[in-house]
Specification:
Elements: H1 5-17, H2 22-26, E1 40-45, E2 51-59, E3 66-73, E4 76-83, E5 89-96, H3 121-136, H4 151-156
Antiparallel strand pairs: 1-2, 1-5, 2-3, 3-4
């Protein structure tokens, strides 16, 4: 019997589902630009329309890792679990970082009318417009060393004020 049978099986699954390791790196805890709860994420699929929403929950479970996104569509709240290693998921992008770090692991209180952020379509449209400009070469891109989450980290070392 192998002492870590399930761990080795999970690792094999992840390597088959994510051969380049891009998704694993994106959601790695050691990555300073990893998506966090409260961020607005845009997921595009191989089939159908893209889905964007506020990340309420990140469920890290090896090959079963998933994110819960919430958006308002036509006055109705819509939530969707997205398995990050699913072959149907083409890309996951961070559209906008949360202004402040969430002090909760799961932001289920955003379902209540008092806290509901509403539709994120305007923010996503602005992001896609900006991305198209950058890809066409009309707008310059910041240096790659600068972290989007902690801009001071690239200059003075992590945690510098």
């Amino acid at each position: 019997h192998h002492p870590f049978a399930i761990a080795s099986i999970n690792k094999a699954h992840v390597t088959t589902l994510d051969p380049t390791g891009a998704r694993t790196r994106l959601f790695s805890r050691s990555n300073p630009d990893t998506p966090c709860v409260g961020d607005i994420l845009l997921t595009t699929f191989t089939t159908g329309d893209p889905f964007s929403g506020i990340c309420l929950n990140i469920r890290r479970r090896g090959p079963d890792t998933a994110i819960l996104l919430r958006n308002r569509m036509l006055t109705v709240g819509v939530e969707m679990w997205v398995k990050i290693y699913s072959p149907k998921v083409r890309s996951i992008e961070v559209v906008e970082r949360a202004a402040k770090r969430a002090r909760r692991a799961r932001l289920y209180y955003l379902r209540k009318p008092k806290h509901d952020r509403g539709s994120v379509e305007g923010v996503v449209e602005e992001y896609l417009k900006r991305r198209r400009l950058v890809r066409s070469g009309a707008v310059g891109v910041r240096e790659p060393g600068a972290s989007t989450k902690n801009p001071s980290a690239a200059r003075k070392g992590v945690g510098a004020r």
